[in-house]
Inverse folding.
């Protein structure tokens, strides 16, 4: 099989599911024998993380839409041979498109849209997503539908490829052993969330919804941590809510929980943390935001409640905590469904096929 030469660009400085998707996909395709590298700002978190995933990385100042970003990408692409460019954020998508336009566009481009944030409808974006882009990938069918129906982009040039998760790694475990390992209470009902501490993940509603008998484990970090800690203090929940920050390995944290909650209110594809929790066999409560319903099917693989509704969220969590048979049924079905539909190998197969189709 022909070896692919893929160059990913990412302008964002933070650390979210998007950056993890880039690295996990790149790692998998490198293991399949392809040449893959990443261009990103040297100060970005993904730049520091890439070596840990075995992904070659080059630091260039592409964090902002400015002539310098176009210039450095133009220079690099002019000097180096690649089969395709894969862009991920709005800024690097524009910089790459303009750099390739200046070169004469000798390299095809794949634009991955990771969230349900709407693409503004204007002539510039229409050019970017059609004439300047060879193929569009979304992380959920709902995102693809929106691009077709709202923006008028051609459906035949858009593919939905949710982020795949390794079911052999994310699997049910010994709850008691995990709690002992992590020094979590063994005699309490634990609700947990794994997500960046950002407004869009809805942590505030989860804190407000926490049932009286439950404790909450918050895994992750981010810009609203201080606000959330203040809310916990105001509600006198310090004894029942613990913030553990970012964790290199979230598997034992998931295995320690009774219920997983992701009350997203903002832009979402199919969240990786939700699929990870479902593969761990956890009963989950979430919202119908973005492409979440593609994994969370109400009463079948999860309980789905309206976004920004603390009362409904709390009632759903309480229902799972008080009904072990329901919790077990949803957790078992969630694992089966996600293993079949959101596998890591399936994601690699589909991305490899798309890249082969567009690569020169």
């Amino acid at each position: 099989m022909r070896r692919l030469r893929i160059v990913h660009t990412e302008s964002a400085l933070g650390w979210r599911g998007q950056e993890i998707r880039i690295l996990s996909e790149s790692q998998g395709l490198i293991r399949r024998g392809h040449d893959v590298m990443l261009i990103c700002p040297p100060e970005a978190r993904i730049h520091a993380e890439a070596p840990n995933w075995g992904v070659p990385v080059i630091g260039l100042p592409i964090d902002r839409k400015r002539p310098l970003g176009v210039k450095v990408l133009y220079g690099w692409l002019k000097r180096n041979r690649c089969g395709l460019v894969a862009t991920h954020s709005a800024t690097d998508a524009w910089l790459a498109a303009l750099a390739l336009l200046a070169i004469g566009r000798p390299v095809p481009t794949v634009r991955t849209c990771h969230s349900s944030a709407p693409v503004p409808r204007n002539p510039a974006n229409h050019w970017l997503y059609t004439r300047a882009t060879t193929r569009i990938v979304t992380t959920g069918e709902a995102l693809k539908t929106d691009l077709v129906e709202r923006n008028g982009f051609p459906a035949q040039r858009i593919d939905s490829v949710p982020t795949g998760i390794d079911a052999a790694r994310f699997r049910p475990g010994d709850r008691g052993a995990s709690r002992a390992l992590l020094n979590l209470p063994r005699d309490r009902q634990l609700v947990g969330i794994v997500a960046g501490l950002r407004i869009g993940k809805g942590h505030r509603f989860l804190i407000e919804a926490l049932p009286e008998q439950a404790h909450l484990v918050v895994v992750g970090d981010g810009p609203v941590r201080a606000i959330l800690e203040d809310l916990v203090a105001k509600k006198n929940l310090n004894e029942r809510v613990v913030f553990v920050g970012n964790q290199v390995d979230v598997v034992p944290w998931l295995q320690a929980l009774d219920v997983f909650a992701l009350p997203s209110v903002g832009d979402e594809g199919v969240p990786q943390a939700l699929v990870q929790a479902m593969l761990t066999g956890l009963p989950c409560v979430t919202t119908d935001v973005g492409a979440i319903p593609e994994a969370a099917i109400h009463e079948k693989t999860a309980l789905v409640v309206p976004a920004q509704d603390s009362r409904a969220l709390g009632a759903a969590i309480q229902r799972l905590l008080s009904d072990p048979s329901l919790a077990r049924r949803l957790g078992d079905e969630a694992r089966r469904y996600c293993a079949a539909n959101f596998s890591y190998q399936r994601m690699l197969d589909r991305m490899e096929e798309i890249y082969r189709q567009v690569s020169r």
User: Anything to note?
Assistant: Residues 175-341 form a domain with the Rossmann fold fold (CATH 3.40.50.2000). DSSP finds 14 helices and 13 strands in the chain. The CA atoms of residues 10 and 238 lie 38 Å apart.
